[in-house]
Amino acid sequence: MSMRRMGPLHGLLRDKTPRGPCPLTMAQSLQQNYCKNPGEDICKLKRKLEEATQKRKEAEAAAEAEREAAMIKNRVDKCIIEKTKAFQECVEGSADKQQQDILRIMMGCLKTGIRRICADSVMSAFCREKAEAGANKIRQMLKQCGEKLPKGAGSNREPNAVDLIQKKCREMAESKKLQAPGGNQAERSRFAQKVDQCVASGWKEVCSSRSNLSEKEQVELDRMQQCVCDQIKENCRQQVLREMCADGGQQPKRKANSEVLTFKARPTEVAEEVPEEKPSPPPKESLNPEVEKCVQAKLQCVEGFIRSLSGDEATARENISECARIKLREQCEAEIQQRKLEEEIQRKKCLEKRARREAEMQQRKLSEEKARKEAEAWRAKCMENRNRKEAEKRARKEAEALRRKCQEKRAEKEAEAQAKDDKCQPGGPGGGAEAVVNQELLKHFRECLFKKLGGPHDTQPGRKVTIAGAGAVGMACAMALLCKGVTNHVALFDDQKEWAAAERLDMLHGSMFINNPRIEQCNGVAATKDSRLVVLTAGNRPKPNETRLDVAQKTADIVKAVMPALLEQSPKATFIVVSNHADVMAWVARKVTNLPYERCFSTGCHLDTARFRLFIGQLLGIAARSVHGYVIGEHGGSSVPLWSTVSVGGVRLQEVLPVIGTENDPMYWSAVHKDVVEAAFRVIAVKGYTNWAIGLTVADVVSAIFEDSHRVLTLSTNVQGFCAVKDEVFMSVPCVVSAHGISAICRPKLSDWEKNRFLKSAQTLLEAQCSIKV
């Protein structure tokens, strides 16, 4: 017999009671035909059917749970992706780099919070959908009842009547089983049991979904409660019949999966599918307030991001913040440790620097003490040498006086003899051999006083003066030459042609007041053609507290570039170098052009000599022209004032004060030379440059050349062989100026102090010359 046929047979056997001979005869017939013990076979068949039905229901429940779990997982994943994307956009769009760094550190905590928030929100929505589905079933039953009952029916009930729905819900809350009236549960049929179970399930769903109905719908439910109760029973009868018919003719299609059955326990367990990180260990509270302050500050920077992620979920926000505290605390501790380490390193450096400074100060004190002792020894030696020289000087004077006396006697005798001879000679006194002897003595005397240079040279006719460099110094030279009437023909040359043209126009506009000079247009180096003199002022302007030697190399490159072109245009010209450093630049200009020394030189200490005389005249209250003295050596800090030759009205100041200008000078005349050295720097500190004084100095030198005056000026030229200088060094000494430049150099007679200073100045300039790349 098939399973489909046994299903209805099973129902007939359980629902019908024997009433006569026909049913009994049918049962006996069945017993004889199919089995020896029919009751035992039917029980086995019944159990098999129940087991198959239970397995099918479990499989369907498991499939439904699996479908719901997959749906919830998809929704959670979609929520995580959306929130993570929004979070990353917020991080990348943040303008504050500090916030970006903190949020990257908190990335793991924030992602964990995002997972929890998404799981909670999706499960809440799922539960709401379930509740709404139950409410929809109640609405459907209310609709069917409304179609069956006439309008207003079912609302009249007695005042003391018990609310059926409330009673059912109360029984469900107290976990009481619904029982069918009349009879024991064990004696009821399987169909009745299934119906009761379905009705209990239906009422449970009505009770749980009743709160989701609107107030109006609850009133309708209360009015139609009996109809709803009947509707639930009717629906359950039909459902049970369908299930029992299906159970009688079908086998379960698949077995339940043990792993999938775990989802049937409760829907909220679906959230466990969301991958979560392991919970962080409980935060270890730091005892360092500085660390907690750092953590709090970083959390405040990103509080807006945390609030935007968690919304109103205070628990989720607290979890994210607590996780972030742990990670931020680790970073803050590392940052504080690093800062302390850097501070310790800096402190050690400061201690080492202080120790070095103290060692340097100690070394400096020892050096100063040593220098003081050496100075005292040197002073004692100088005193000894002075005493010896004074003794030698007295001895020489005595010897000179004796020699002079002898010469006078000899001269008297010779004069007497000559007078006797003159009486016999027609030429008379003062002629012949005596004149020849005097010329020879005069020539020897001149050779002892001067060193004659080459010349005379063929000079360029006219009085054209070229100013190479139209800066402040160059224009001061041009104005001094024109205003003093030294020349009436000037040419300006500069690599900035527009600047030179503007300066020329500026002078031409006032040319009527300076005898209408001829100022040639600056159209390149060709404007300098056939110049009698070329004044080179091109170079870098010295800055405040910058010595002339500091700008030497920069200016040397300019001199090397322009000198060959200027010499090509004016091969007979005399070149006066004014560019800083003047001594070194004169040596560079002579080196690149190979001109004779007398035609290429610098103004040197001529301006220093003028300042020297000015300051002495101011102290003595006389005109600077009435003071006679010179400054030689470098045109700069190592220049040498010749105190041994300074005189006023024929009186040498050294005869009045023998120690004048030295370290033992009680009047500190050495401050005069100090003022001479610092004079230019005082002007540069305010103006940025000096120009008028050097312009007038150049005009004085050019005037001496044009006039062939043979005046003695302190100009810078080669002093090799003078005062024990063995190398070719350009420095200032008194020179005789003639029509072609320098015609002779005076041989200075220097004291020991002056000679030592002169040699030091020569060494300074020699080092400067060696540092120039020619």
UniProtKB/TrEMBL annotation:
User: Which residues lie in coiled coils?
Assistant: 42-82
The residues covered by the Lactate/malate dehydrogenase N-terminal domain are: 464-601
SUPFAM superfamilies on file: LDH C-terminal domain-like, NAD(P)-binding Rossmann-fold domains
InterPro entries with a match to the protein in the record? L-lactate/malate_DH, Lactate/malate_DH_C, Lactate/malate_DH_N, Lactate_DH/Glyco_Ohase_4_C, NAD(P)-bd_dom_sf
GO BP annotations of the record are: lactate metabolic process
- Where composition is biased (Basic and acidic residues), the residues are 412-424
Residues of the region (Disordered) are: 1-21, 267-289, 412-432
- Tell me, what is one Gene Ontology molecular-function annotation carried by this entry? L-lactate dehydrogenase (NAD+) activity
Return the CDD domains for the record.
LDH_1
Keyword Cell inner membrane in record = no
Q: Which keywords appear in this protein's UniProt record, sorted alphabetically?
A: Coiled coil, NAD, Oxidoreductase
Question: Is the keyword Coiled coil assigned to this protein?
Answer: yes
Could you tell me what this protein is called? L-lactate dehydrogenase
- From which source organism is this entry? Drosophila pseudoobscura pseudoobscura
